[in-house]
Amino acid sequence: MTSGLAHYLDVATRFQAERADAPVWLKRLREEALRQFERQGLPTPRDEEWKYTSVAPVEARPFSLPRELVGSADVAAEVARLSSAGPRLVFVDGRLDSSLSVLGGLPRGMTLKPLRDALRDDEAVLAEVLGQRARAEAHPFVALNAALLEDGVFLRLGRGVRGEAPVQVLFLSRAGGEAVLSSPRVVVVAEEGSEATLVETYAGAGASFTNTVTEVTLGDNASLNHVKLQVEGDAALHLGVLHSRLGRDSRFASHAFNLGAALARNEVHAAFAGEGGDCTLNGLFVGQGTQHLDHRTDLDHAVPRCTSRELYKGVLDGRAHGAFHGRVRVRENAQRTDARQTSRNLLLSETAQVDARPQLEIFADDVKCAHGAAVGRLDENALFYLRSRGIDRAQAEQLLTHAFASELVRAVPEGNVRARVEAMLALKLPGAPRLEVTA
Amino acid sequence: MALLSVRNLHARVGDKDILKGIDLEVGPGEVHAIMGPNGSGKSTLAGVLAGREAYTVTQGEVSFDGQDLLSLPAEKRALAGVFLGFQYPVEIPGVGNLHFLRTALNAQRRSRGLEELDAMDFLQLAREKAKLVQLDTAFMNRSVNEGFSGGEKKRNEIFQMAVLQPRLALLDETDSGLDIDALRIVAGGVNALRSKERGMVVITHYQRLLDYIVPDRVHVMAAGRIVRSGGRELALELEEKGYGWLGLEQAKAPKEARS
Fold first, then answer.
1. Is the CB of residue A42 less than 8 Å from the CB of residue A28?
2. Chain A residues within 8 Å of chain B (Cβ atoms)
């Protein structure tokens, strides 16, 4: 049995050989991605992009591709816990589970389907976006995902379509099975003036490796609220890359919650392609034990008059390690850019660590840009205030920690999705207010 | 027996001695005022009694209801019935005022073997107590002190005291930053909480507060010691003659600075 790069090359080569009858365009896309993966290889900490995060665990086990799904009644309760009414696609151990998915009741003009079907039926639309936002030549794990392209989600919002209920995509991994590598791809095309909320949830108990890529294309004046909730099991590896391209006057908000997995890295890349765009990038990681959690953001102000707001927070306890690297580029012609980036990190133990690296590259002169990064501990004054009322130190620390983290939960629009994020955070950080009756 | 008994208390911050031998006895039902110029150690005394960890006690003892107060961490002192009204109440974004206070009250009730209050019962109690200091119930749902005006913060302190019903209240410059209307409201709240069982130590720079909260005893602190004690007439004398009359450096009368 091979390991490391050779193993993945072998897995992908066999995967592609078994799909020799795929449409030519798709075959080419997969093959080219495999070449790009081989060319780049697995990153090492010597790579500037991977300075803070070692992917050694990815090499340590021979992850295998998902098998066809047999029975999933055992996860029905989990699906109920992690989703609410509305359209949803559920994947179990990397494979679509139609019995747990809900595709009815979509608004007119909205298409939501398994990517596998879209690869068969929607070549015309996909050709313009698939692999165009997240480029295989720029990222080894995007390349690996594309080399294994098959399962995932295709969401298309026609002109002016408004999705009332959030679209939910769930990826569950079960304990006890093989160590599965799943490579989901989520493709979103929001045409002019459309509006929706998309929630991607990754959960489970398996020792899985999820390598997921999301590509978002927003037309003029379109709006997408994207929530990613990563609550994978303690042994899981999770790599996620999201790319979003914002058309004129469009709005994109990303709320990334990384709470689970042994190793997780979440990248969010947003590029303004038309003036007047508005982008919010929010993120939270909460690490405990020996978790390693990495947030990478990249904002490209390529055109004038766009606004971006970025708030990333981290809470680290035990021997957990966190990293935030956020780059904001303001290109030469991107005058009247208004960009603000904030990274705040809370260390709860002597052995927890965080690397915070804001990176602003400004080539235009008429811009408003600000950034700040802070690493600190709980405020002793606030702790004393709580303790002076009879709340013991441990509980006071929980209250303050939860308050620090929950700012990002409160940034999610009110509703079922926010409530679910809140509940997941409460599992990780006790000290959440129990349901409070208001005055 | 005295509720609070402070003997020869010395304390420092870093290597700076601030309290240099304080003796003070407060009995149940008594209200003691501590006055003195800035820097005399008044707030330090309150902080040391409440268990602020920035201070180191180097000598002396404090007993509260027969217990060695100095051996207890801040939260245990609160459970024993000590309450500190902060000069500068801390803003805590993200922690709801009501949730905070219910957590505190239930911690105190648990330590006394009482049943915890559920959200409904607590809300009823909070509404009732909020009336004492005319605190709008809308404030109760906001984050602790976040964005509160100076007066709202001080009213929130007294509101908390009303809910927690301490046996000893240490009110540290509760009058600072208040206009006359807010001062009346806050003092009214404090007066309503006077009782035969409860002792109070009211720390103030200005005698003005003592027109509204009439003390049983007045102590004057200077340079880390209590240099003079007397009845309420001492406060009036101070107002007339200033601290200079006591042979202290600051000669200016401690008249109110704002109206």
1. no
2. 379-382, 384-393, 395-396, 399-400, 402-404, 406-407, 410, 433-439
